[in-house]
Fold:
Amino acid sequence: EAQVTQNPRYLITVTGKKLTVTCSQNMNHEYMSWYRQDPGLGLRQIYYSMNVEVTDKGDVPEGYKVSRKEKRNFPLILESPSPNQTSLYFCASSLGQPNPLHFGNGTRLTVT
Amino acid sequence: DQQVKQNSPSLSVQEGRISILNCDYTNSMFDYFLWYKKYPAEGPTFLISISSIKDKNEDGRFTVFLNKSAKHLSLHIVPSQPGDSAVYFCAASARGNQFYFGTGTSLTVIP
Structure:
């Protein structure tokens, strides 16, 4: 089944403790991206990647890192999480325009 | 600044009637527009899209209209069904580099 898989689905952590949210797609998509969803703000893009070893900042990249060492994986790294990064995170992938994004089921992160 | 706006946070419609969801954008470089549907505890799922070279695209009960001069996008659902109750996001991109999403409209279809 074609899908985007994120792990974990839920994560509670403390300020400053490094964490990684994994994202994997099995559709051979070149384009991958990360979003965060916050009440009243919709989905905002954090980082995106047009291909292996090519990444770019989205609208809200501060406090996040990504890597794209292989086509199928696009992990999101929070080196020193802070409470303002408490949010619902979505990974997505696409063949590239004019094709739509396919989303994972989300990771709810709470930073205390 | 929000480049894609959905000014109605919520909408209620009777089953069988038409649902019209609206979206406005500010960037004239956007050339690809999409609508997504989102249920709680799931990721957004793609509904329908339209290229800037068109003004209408249909897929079953769903039709998207694009008015480039007004920078306005709308999604029509006819007839509306209770299973359509969800949050709907519009999105736009310019050459596929970045996708910008609206804040969402929560649609409730009343049986």
About this structure: DSSP finds no helices and eleven strands in chain A. The radius of gyration of chain A is 13 Å. The mean pLDDT of chain A is 95. The interface with chain B takes residues 4, 31, 33, 35, 40-45, 48, 50, 56, 58-59, 90, 92, 94, 96-98, 100-106 of chain A (CB under 8 Å).
